[in-house]
UniProtKB/TrEMBL annotation:
Naturally occurring in which organism (per UniProt): Paraconiothyrium brasiliense
Superkingdom of origin organism: Eukaryota
Identification of the protein by name: Uncharacterized protein
Amino acid sequence: MAFNWDKFCKAQRDNPRPKFALDAVGKLLKKRPNDPYLLAWKASTLLNFDGRANEALSILTTLCQRQPPITDTNLLPFLYDRILNASRQSDPKCLPLSSVGAEGLKAWQNAAKALPNRKAKLKLWSDLFVVSMREECWEDVRWATMQANKEGTDSKSRKAIYYSLILANQLGGERRAELAKEADKIDPSTRIQLTIALRQMEEAYGNSTKPTVRCTRQPL
């Protein structure tokens, strides 16, 4: 029986206890060893056990390289969330993450190549934008915004993308500055990023407050 997102969610609800969930998914994987939903379920379950985060991370990053790629826009954000979770568990002392990493983003790149049209790709980048915003991974927010812009958008969407990119640049720069300060390092590229973001915000604010000039026809 092929899995999909609904069956995946039901299986997790039906097996809330990690030990029994791991047994259940193990039996299913014997019949379908390459099923992405079952592998995602196993990886997610492993995160409930001490010392198994690296094993979970290995499964998750392998899924991101999968061919044909995963295009389920429910499963991709799930994988994104679990990769961050596994990364934090594997190194509890690590600094706050600003990105899921190149391997995690590869899943989204592969999915975009496989999607049939511009509308589906824009939906994909929107989903990445939302999940990375929620996780405060500002480098990924910026990257998702840039990918959406490459797809070509209408004037209204371009304006939203422009302001989103300014926000991501500012917040991403602030996060990098915080990390550099904690590590007692000077990062010139972060200073440049913040300077550019500030200039963009000033320009955007200036444009939004410019008075509208109305041309009125004077009587002869």
